[in-house]
Amino acid sequence: MSVLDNFDTWKDFLANRMQQAEQQGMSQQTISNLAYEVGDYLAKRVDAKNDEEAVLLELWNAASTEERQAIASSMVKLVQNEGNAK
Question: Which Gene3D superfamilies would you find in this protein's record (predicted)?
Answer without folding.
Answer: Protein of unknown function DUF3243
